[in-house]
Amino acid sequence: MNDHPERRRRFFRRENDRPRRRFRRGVYLLPSLFTMGNMFCGYACVVYAMRGEYETAAPFIGFALVLDMLDGRIARLTGNESEFGLQFDSLADVISFGIAPAVLTFAWGLSPLGRLGWAASFMFVACAAMRLARFNIQSGGDKRYFVGMPSPTAAAVPAATVYAYPWGLYDYREALPALLVVLVPAILMVSTIRFRSFKTIDLQSRRPYSVLLLIAAGIVLITTHPRFVLVAMAYTYLASAFIGMAITRIKHRGGRGLPADAPDQSTPHAPPARDSAARL
């Protein structure tokens, strides 16, 4: 009596052997289109930077930042989140927020420094890649804050600087201060300093009409004075983490200054529980 071939395979198969996981074919098109647009903006920034058109190259990083914000929100709102989308978005961010700002800054003002310039630019790329890798493996935590400066806002610092002064630096003495434009955001990306996150903002709840007026005023300012407003926004977010740390330390020092036996005046004293029970 001959056994069936499938029974033979089951007999010789080890218990710890598991069937191979089949990959699901196809991708969610809508969020992937935004991610592809994000990647294209990073590539366009590199092309224009190599041609010396810095004023045209720098805004592409801003466009990539907007697309990067939209692809994640659209994926969550439509329920189209996937592991492929997460990895695809990370690879696009390495191009748009790692390689593109590094090449842009090097071509704009770090090339007179020679090896020191391209070493600083590579440091930015490496820190951006490590920041994205650390973000992908993090789980839980306080959603109100990012651990380390996010790579899109870190890329906005050199991009806004180049856009504010697109004429380039051709003397090594002028280029030395430009090292801080890439090194400071690079170090902050891999640091443990907490930066404010805007993921907890509820866009579906009702807001006062004054919020729309503030948004309209911001759009007008960006349209009329884009160089100054964008560079102010980028550096304000960079400094916001240090301002928050200073405020937190001042509050802690103020709390330590109170004597241990001093009564807490912030909340009124509640009657003892046994007195309340006696009245019942």
Model description:
The chain is globular, with a radius of gyration of 26 Å. Mean pLDDT is 82; it is low at 264-280. It has one domain (26-200, 209-251): CDP-alcohol phosphotransferase transmembrane (TM) domain (Four Helix Bundle (Hemerythrin (Met), subunit A)), CATH 1.20.120.1760. Helix 9 packs across helix 10. It has a two-stranded antiparallel ribbon with strand order 1-2. It has eleven helices and two strands; from the N terminus they run H-H-H-H-H-E-H-H-H-E-H-H-H. The chain is an all-alpha fold.
Q: How are the secondary structure elements laid out?
A:
Elements (H helix, E strand, L loop, with lengths): L4 H8 L16 H22 L3 H25 L4 H28 L4 H23 L7 E3 L3 H14 L7 H4 L3 H11 L4 E3 L12 H16 L1 H31 L16 H7 L1
Antiparallel strand pairs: 1-2
Tally of helical segments = 11
H/E element sequence: HHHHHEHHHEHHH
Task: Detail the poorly predicted runs.
Answer: 264-280
Whole-number average pLDDT? Answer: 82
Percent range for β-strand residues: under 5%
CATH topology: Four Helix Bundle (Hemerythrin (Met), subunit A)
For the largest beta-sheet, the strand count, sense and barrel status come to: 2 strands, antiparallel
The CATH architecture comes to: Up-down Bundle
Number of domains: 1
Order of strands across the main sheet: 1-2
In one word, what is the shape? globular
Number of strands: 2
Q: What is the CA–CA distance across the termini?
A: 86 Å
Radius of gyration based on Cα positions? 26 Å
